[in-house]
């Protein structure tokens, strides 16, 4: 059974070892790995779109980091505390399609609590595997910075974010289109539960 698990388990991000994958999260990701593996031959377009998204996020990341360097250090109400974020299905699809590490657990926290991935030095997750809702978030202080720089910089950033958002929708639609007719052929989840 352990061998079967290893065959179907996605690569979980090892992090600092403080977050072993929770069983439910582990099983859900194993199921997604298996499902995508069954349909892999038909997912070429979805993988190509995922690669475009990856390039877009890689371009966006330094721009957002530059914004954060101007606003976050003295922020009185950090957005990683109190806001509820989560790793959504499109986030997981992107990572699975590109065979990239999966965060070890969901990012949700209780009301008013800090995100479990928050440390004194910022987010513990590498930028590539953070939830999209974190990657693309522009807070009011950052909007003010962008507005001071003038409309083109805000518009350019928003344009990049919108293009990635559209590609995320396209990637998801393509995956659903490819797996839907054969959904009933999915194997049982027993291989991953051991
Ligand atoms: S992104 Fe904005 S709200 Fe979040 S920590 Fe930075 S300054 Fe604060
Ligand atoms: S995942 Fe990272 S960036 Fe997103 S809320 Fe948690 S600590 Fe902040």
Notes on the protein architecture:
This protein has one domain. The chain has a two-stranded antiparallel sheet. Helix content is 53%, strand content 2%. Strand 1 (118-119) and strand 2 (122-123) form a beta hairpin. The model is unreliable at 1-6 and 189-194 (pLDDT under 50). Helix 3 crosses helix 6 (140-149). The chain is an all-alpha fold. The chain binds iron/sulfur cluster (SF4) (2 copies). The site of one iron/sulfur cluster has 9 residues, from helix 3 and helix 6.
Short recap of the structure:
The protein is mostly helical and 194 residues long. The protein has one domain. The chain has helices at residues 2-8, 23-38, 44-71, 89-97, 132-135, 140-149, 151-179; strands at 118-119, 122-123.
């Amino acid at each position: 059974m352990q061998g079967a698990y290893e065959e179907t388990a996605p690569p979980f991000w090892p992090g600092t070892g403080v977050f072993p994958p929770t069983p439910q999260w582990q099983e859900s990701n194993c199921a997604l790995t298996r499902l995508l593996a069954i349909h892999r031959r038909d997912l070429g377009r979805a993988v190509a779109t995922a690669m475009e998204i990856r390039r877009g996020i890689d371009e966006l990341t330094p721009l957002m980091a530059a914004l954060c360097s101007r606003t976050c250090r003295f922020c009185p109400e950090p957005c990683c505390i109190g806001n509820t974020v989560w790793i959504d299905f499109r986030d997981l699809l992107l990572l699975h399609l590109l065979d990239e590490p999966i965060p070890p657990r969901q990012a949700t926290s209780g009301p008013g609590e800090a995100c479990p991935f928050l440390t004194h030095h910022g987010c513990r997750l590498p930028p590539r595997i953070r939830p999209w809702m974190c990657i693309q978030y522009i807070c009011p202080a950052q909007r003010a910075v962008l507005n001071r720089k003038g409309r083109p910089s805000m518009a350019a950033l928003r344009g990049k974010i919108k293009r990635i958002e559209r590609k995320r929708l396209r990637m998801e639609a393509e995956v659903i289109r490819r797996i839907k007719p054969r959904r009933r052929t999915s194997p049982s989840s027993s291989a991953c539960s051991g």
